[in-house]
Design a protein that fits this description.
The structure is a homodimer of 359-residue chains.
Chain A (H helix, E strand, L loop, with lengths): L8 E9 L13 E10 L12 E9 L26 E11 L9 E7 L3 E4 L6 E2 L16 H13 L7 E4 L7 H10 L3 E6 L2 H9 L5 E4 L6 H8 L4 E6 L3 H10 E9 L26 E4 L9 H13 L7 E5 L4 H7 L8 E5 L10
Parallel strand pairs in A: 8-9, 8-11, 9-10, 11-12, 12-13, 14-15
Antiparallel strand pairs in A: 1-2, 3-4, 3-6, 3-15, 4-5, 5-7
């Protein structure tokens, strides 16, 4: 063992969860940046019997589902974080060392990693190798990653779209919504989006090509607003927010409408979610309302990557991301999701080494 | 014209809607029994250009959807009643006179008719002829009629049932629920029903063969009750009631569960429906929640009648109805639905002439 060349060492800062939260959205001080000391840039021998991969994290993804992992709730499809331990999330990383035959130093990968500079990944099977191309690496956390795939699977598999139908997307400039709207336009639908600032509304209309968009914060009566934008009613609602918007949509749905429930970002707490009053509309309008998670549809992933890369290269789909620079800004980046501070897909650039950070 | 033999005359009492109701369930005095004078038992000449049928009503059906027609709300799939006019509903009747080539005096028919002794039906196309058999005529308003077909279409088309799945039915002893439970048992499912009296609970377990049943009024915590009856969770919920039961079910659903929304009889008013707080469960559990109306599935009707008649004759499905005798008791019969007074399918016997009334 002593013959082995000493591995280079590196500082490893981490973002850890302080303690579980309950009944409120996360705050910055729920997370703390700690100095994890220095780590040897080699998969440790102790990990040797099971193959592992040591990566340098480049980009980290901030996603709304992560809030659920900050709660002491074990009944979900993904376990909670552990207080005092590093936050986990999707990321793009460079392999530094590997004892897994599928990965070698220098590979670029995406998958579950830690909110830290270097992560030892003991389940490398869940990582995917990324071929570097003209598509920015960070887009593998958005356009070509989980949010893009959520949009793709949700739109094609859950919404059952038909050409000419009326589609409404809430949180429409977000990581998922911006893609849903563009896919719906490519499908020949009429598409309206809602967002929480006029800047986002302009983005929806100007950049993403929505037929119309509105700032829900400036609408005193959401039911009336939707009636204005959809005088004939809504065939498809891609639900990202929940709460009063869902109630207003239910009153404006058309017969045989479909609601794909992707998330409910307005529902900050499991402890006292807002009541939905118009569920009775499901019967006379024969509405199908369906929750989904992208991971149930992974058989479509290769087709998704191929379709989406082509659309992007053909200029038929554009993508907007909102990048924070530096691991120390990751807590604020995540927290900002729940008050709509991000404009587009929120990512954190941890390392500038592959020079694709836009700074 | 004067050569024509004078038609026999008959008294014709009617139940009319007094005025629209709002924000509450119907009361008996919302309807009034009026003397409609005497009518000639012949399709009047004035109706001659369009074929019409004059029927003597035998059985009338009391159904929860009728409440919706007592409101001044025109956005539904069926228009409201008119104040001062006779209540309409499904019924079984004998044809007295017909100018429609498809019907002759003496035919027994089912379809939309009036809450009166004799009805002139100006859209006879919607009537179906009934072959008299060993199955009671009134069952064409239940087991072999709209409620039975609602159960059949809802269970097979909306619930996507699989053998061995865990099925929960609310309002389970009602016109629809009792059939859903029995179909689910025939399909190899584990079936639990809820009802509002211990008598109904005994009926569910004893007569309809549910695996278990409970009185929801005796359960202080519906979520805990469902957890007790479904320790592994619910795959299929056949929703007849809405409100707090739906919230409790959402917390107890299994991954990929299905909720067929047939009706929400607990939701007495459009004006202030109870809020549903646990809709967020749709996402992590990937629940499909779907409203439906039997008339969208009419292609299955012939198969339904054939299947159900066979099940009945084979003793595999039983049916319980709750009959009121006399048109004067129809308002109370309808009103009783909304406080659960009926035990089984509620019908009103208007005429004893075919001697199948059980009195």
């Amino acid at each position: 063992m002593e013959q082995q060349q000493a591995a280079p060492m590196a500082r490893n800062r981490k973002v850890v969860l302080r303690e579980y939260i309950a009944g409120r959205p996360p705050r910055e001080d729920d997370m703390v940046l700690v100095d994890g000391g220095t780590v040897a840039l080699r998969v440790p021998e102790a990990a040797a019997p099971a193959p592992a991969v040591l990566v340098k994290n480049l980009y980290l993804s901030c996603d709304p589902y992560m809030r659920g992992r900050m709660r002491d709730f074990h009944g979900s499809y993904i376990p909670p974080f552990k207080p005092g331990s590093v936050i986990e999330g999707l990321g793009v990383a460079r392999v530094v060392d590997s004892t897994h035959s599928g990965f070698s130093a220098g590979d670029i990968v995406s998958g579950m990693t830690g909110w830290e500079e270097y992560s030892l990944i003991d389940r490398p099977e869940q990582l995917s190798k990324i071929q570097q191309s003209d598509i920015p690496l960070s887009y593998h956390l958005g356009l070509l990653g989980m949010p893009g795939f959520t949009a793709y699977a949700g739109f094609y598999e859950i919404c059952s779209p038909k050409k000419g139908e009326f589609v409404f997307v809430s949180a429409a400039s977000g990581a998922v919504g911006q893609i849903v709207g563009q896919l719906a336009k490519l499908h020949g639908c009429y598409v309206v989006g809602s967002a929480g600032t006029n800047q986002k509304v302009e983005l929806l209309k100007g950049k993403f090509g929505f037929d119309a968009a509105f700032n829900y914060k400036e609408e005193p009566d959401l039911t009336a607003a939707l009636k204005r934008y959809f005088p004939e009613g809504i065939d498809i609602y891609f639900e990202n927010v929940g709460g009063p918007m869902l109630d207003a949509v239910l009153l404006n749905m058309r017969t045989h409408g479909r609601i794909a429930v992707c998330g409910m970002v307005s529902q900050n707490a499991l402890t006292d979610p807002v009541g939905i009053h118009n569920i009775f509309c499901l019967v006379p309008k024969r509405i199908r309302m369906q929750g989904f998670i992208q991971s149930d549809h992974l058989h479509m992933f290769p087709q998704f990557v191929s379709d989406m890369a082509k659309h992007y290269r053909d200029g038929k789909i554009v993508y907007v991301e909102d990048m924070s620079i530096g691991l120390e800004n990751a807590p604020a980046a995540l927290v900002g999701l729940f008050s709509g501070k991000n404009v587009g897909k929120k990512v954190v650039c941890v390392s500038q080494e592959l020079s694709q950070c836009t700074f």
